[in-house]
Write a structure and sequence with these properties.
about 400 residues, mainly alpha, three-stranded antiparallel sheet, 11 helices, 6 strands, peroxisome
Length: about 400
């Protein structure tokens, strides 16, 4: 096989890496949905939704920093039992042929790699989200300008014309800032599609190469940092809890001040760690809950939108023949008016009976009614039938 699909070896499968990469987006969707539901009863939560990017960036910053510090892995990777390892490439010479070869060895992740990992995991996604929102706003503004004209500039001109002379300098500074901001937004709107397409194409190329076992780096970010993602061994998983407890005990020992201050700081530190642990557990539960609700509401919506098949309605009853009307012939192919076989059969829509076109046109033009039912009709109610063609 060209790529690994099983769970053996230290190298994670493509599906494990893909699941770990998609977990932050699922987590953000779950939090956004939960806050949106709660905002229906607590309107002040709308402010959190207004600063959704900043709120989620701060949350991921706390989670990723804590996870990289304690487990040498991102928050999503630690949930899947993965660890980041630095790649050291040593060059060695062959004694006989004097050829060079590469040998990759894994070592622990370093401090600067942890810092850069936070940048790739938190800062770059935040900037990408802000650029994407700017691009969407500029695209909507361009669409609105193409349909209705540039309304914003008209209002700006009106506001400037009514401004007082005492605040002219202030308006000038604001106009300069506004023009600069608009230019930057236009530059972002022009360059962002190309940058986004390039980054997505590069990420897809790395994922394809990883799937084909052509590289050990799942993403260009990991390649730039020189990090491989490996499965954690059983001993590493057992040492994780001891490492976390050791780090927390060292932090408690570093507390300074009077005994009562140390006690208060220790209680706050313990509460903070407890909140962080419960937050991680709650976030995992939120992701699974969001996926469950998404599946439930999607299936319910599909059931609601599915077309309902009703039985065909019964045919309407035949119209009643008037006593003073022209009786119908026994042979249904004959015209009731001329008692001959119908020529150019035509029906009257108010009754549905069929006659010769010439006969029914002459009769309706003269009497303005159906010959059989005596229901009022006009020549506009005559329809030609083409079943004999």
């Amino acid at each position: 096989m060209l790529f690994q699909v099983g769970g053996q070896g230290s190298r994670p499968t493509f599906f494990e890496m893909s699941a770990a990469q998609q977990l932050p987006s699922s987590l953000r969707a779950a939090l956004t949905y939960s806050i949106g539901v709660l905002a229906l009863r607590r309107p002040f939560l709308h402010k959190v939704l207004d600063y959704e990017d900043e709120f989620f960036a701060a949350l991921t910053l706390i989670l990723e920093t804590h996870s990289l510090r304690t487990t040498d892995a991102s928050f999503a990777e630690s949930l899947y039992g993965l660890r980041r390892r630095a790649v050291n490439i040593h060059m060695k010479k062959e004694d006989l042929r004097m050829e060079t070869g590469n040998r990759s060895q894994h070592s622990g992740i370093r401090k600067h790699q942890k810092l850069l990992s936070v940048v790739f995991l938190v800062v770059l996604p935040y900037l990408k989200s802000k650029l994407h929102s700017i691009y969407n706003k500029e695209r909507e503004a361009a669409l609105q300008a193409s349909l209705w004209g540039n309304v914003n500039e008209t209002f700006d001109e009106m506001d400037t014309s009514f401004a007082s002379t005492s605040s002219l300098d202030t308006h000038t500074e604001l106009s300069v800032r506004t023009q600069f901001r608009k230019r930057m937004h236009k530059i972002v709107a022009t360059c962002y599609p190309w940058v986004h397409a390039g980054s997505e194409g590069l990420a897809f190329a790395y994922q394809l190469l990883y799937l084909l076992d052509a590289t050990g780096f799942y993403s260009p970010g990991l390649h730039a940092l020189g990090l491989h993602v490996c499965r954690a061994t059983g001993q590493e998983l057992m040492d994780t809890s001891s490492r976390i407890s050791k780090i927390r005990s060292n932090e408690r020992e570093r507390l300074r001040g009077p005994p009562w201050v140390k006690a208060v700081q220790g209680v706050l530190l313990t509460c903070g760690y407890a909140v962080l642990d419960y937050a991680q557990t709650g976030l995992i539960a939120a992701v699974f809950g969001f996926k469950m609700m998404e599946w439930w509401y999607q299936s319910a919506e599909e059931r609601m939108l599915a077309p309902t098949v009703y039985p065909p309605p019964p045919p309407p009853p035949p119209p009643k023949v008037a006593k003073e009307g022209i009786p119908l012939a026994a042979d249904r192919t004959l015209c009731p008016l001329c008692s001959q076989k119908r020529a150019n059969p035509s029906a009257i829509t108010v009754s549905g009976f069929v006659f010769c076109y010439a006969c029914v046109f002459k009769y309706v033009s003269q009497y303005n009614r159906c010959p059989v039912t005596l229901v009022p009709a006009s020549v506009d109610h005559i329809r030609r039938l083409f079943h004999d063609l």
